[in-house]
Sequence to fold (856 residues):
Amino acid sequence: MTNIHVEDINIAREKPHHEPPAGWQQYFSFSTDHKVIGIQYLVTSFIFFLIGGIFAMVIRAELITPESDLVNRTVYNAMFTMHGTVMLFLWTFPSLVGLANYLVPLMIGARDMAFPRMNAVAFWMVPVVGILLMGSFFLPDGPAQAGWWSYPPVSLQNPTGHLINGQVLWLLSVAISGVSSIMGAVNFVTTIVRMRAPGMTFFRMPLFVWAVLSAQIIQLFGLPALTAGAVMLLFDLTVGTSFFDPAKGGNPIFFQHYFWFYSHPAVYVIILPVFGIFSEIFPVYARKPLFGYKVVAISSLLIAGVSALVWVHHMYASGTPGWMRIIFMLSTMCVSVPTGIKVFAWTATIWGGKLRLNTPMLFALGGLVMFVFAGITGIMLSSVPVDIHVNNTYFVVGHFHYVLYGTVTMGIYAAIYHWFPKMTGRMYYESLGKLHFFLAFIGTNLNFLPMHPLGLQGMLRRVSSYDPQYTFWNVIASIGGFLLGMSTLPFILNMIGSWMEGKKAPDNPWRAIGLEWLVSSPPPVENFEEIPVVISEPYGYGKSEPSC
Amino acid sequence: MKIRQIVILMAIAIALIAASLWMGQQAYSWFPPQAAAESKLIDELFSFLVTLGTFIFLGVTGTLTYSVLFQRASKYDTSDGPPIEGNVTLEIVWTAIPILLVFWIASYSYNVYAQMAIQGPMEMVHLHMPMGMESANAAPMSQTKPVEKIEVLAKQWAWVFRYPDQDVTSTELHVPANQRVRLALQSEDVIHGFYIPAFRLKQDIIPNQTIDFEFTPIRIGKYRLTDSQYSGTYFATMQADVVVESPQDYNQWLAKVKTYHRVPAYNQAASEYFQTSETDKVFKTGYPTVAPAVPPLVNYSGKKESHS
Fold:
């Protein structure tokens, strides 16, 4: 029995026009094909991931000894500022947008995104942001050194008085990145709401699509605040306004509100698609339907909703009154309820299944375990008295790296391996993939677990030197960091090697259910010859063999 | 069979609880010494969260580990698992229990926060909130009369402490043990953070504001004050010693130091800034930086040789 019925609904003439693919050159063209753009995002962001990783190596090399003895303190400050900026704005955001770009139209049975040209414009802003940020290394003032938060007044201190300096380029980059993301968000929300195939009701959408929808709604309401904050800061810095400059009567705390009003929800913009990836991968490799599909779908929207009301938890130690600290503590803790629902649902999905531990499943399982850990330290951080102690210490750094590396990056790897056969038409090398997983899993824990005792002891983030009693855990963390650096090598080897020479992939190598597995690998331009009609829920494992 | 399952489940639950309680006790050893009354409260709260967190972590990862070890498909087995799509009772349970836990953790945290009564900015606002009624709980912290309000001035990149009644300035913070200490925090340039890990207390210092801050040191000794809000190039060097001493020693110190002449204090940031060659770095290039503020003139800078 097939559970997906294909029918021509004759909308071919409405479809947008694409140039025919032209081999590798298409990836350097202004292509409007969502699949090309998806790969463009993924490859570009991975290059920046490597650059951000090199910055991290410099940081870990400096911190292997207590003294500031590797690089000048200004260089160190530039390193952690650019590490954070690159990893967020040029790795996690664009790589997940790339995955969503590739997968969402395929998963909902559309031929492309709603606005293909805007999609391409949004992508081509990413290299512009990257070039601006990297170019700031060559300015006489050097790149921005105020941390990725760019809190004024530190970010307003301009020691040379030059109009073009690293901080200005940084603010421009963030603003451009914001515009690009807003364009992406408009495109995704429109596509998901308007372009679903017949029969693809909301409650038949794969959970990755639900997660992308929730995440992109956050972008729509949150990004304007960050962009406004960045523009005001830019005015303070360049034309002498005084929104945030206390020396001229401005209020620096306002900037923190603007910044965190978006930048905490931004964490959910990043993590929700990864939750979606987990929800796609666990049923396939456990051979069971996703446990509690509807609740898991709605929990994404709930997380998006609550995320708008938690930003002050970054400011417990700032100039916030007590009542505000308490209200935001409660709202922050509430995030754990829908998140917990997801974790329990995944555990129940895996329980009693017929597990296949392929590379994507290993990365997803590793990511889930590390996410549970990150969630628990997250609850600790939301508690005001505990946070007053560990705020701005390495405990926080450890926590969010368990989220951003342990969960998000592991999830992105899982997704890349899972959909690699679909994207390239080739199988990856399983043994290299497993080697990559073990290096990454061990490296992540070695690198980021020691940060928790360091933070509890009181070691602050962003320090270029520290008291000698913190040395032991820093050495361990640095070893883990270098191991993580090495873990990218088998991945790069695997991706390049298998894309060029890998075994040809069948249309559905994992026997997975979903519209993307019905088309050829790689899918044809415009995906579906005939738009499919969907007649069942997305995770029917164990009920019938999926149709191929 | 049924009884056997119940016994096994009970045994697992007891083992989990035991492991979690043990971990919760371990948590105390992860902190610096408890040098302020507030430290105890925070460590107890953290230990409770560690106990709870360990239970959840072991519960979830234990279940996953069991699946990974014992529920794998054999190599040529292409069959699927059972098509279980959900279980309403289970889903209600794992929604309701976290909600209850959240309220438990939040109310415990709130109680600790109210007992700490650490002041902070905009206290006028919070006095109108219900928290004001909880002040009875704060009694253990405020039994003693607070000492004079010590002025704390933060600047790039130095700490200066001024005892206004004695007109004494110092780059080392001396406070008496077992008395409520009141500070007035001020910043001259950017946002700094007042943080003494051994006290578990932290407060950002906002330029153009005076922020009142209170705590009760309880353990005699020397601790470190650090700048907890990134403040620019020499951020990491912005540290000072905090000496908690008996009230007699404290008063003696004040009387003694009052007689000292004011001299420029040693300042790590300034000394690095004026260092002409960076012989101590592997890579020598650097970018322009904000110049450190002039090292403060103080009666006492912690360096004994400068006064003897």
Q: What stands out?
A: The two ends of chain B are 82 Å apart (CA to CA). Chain B touches chain A through 101 residues (CB under 8 Å). DSSP finds six helices and twelve strands in chain B.
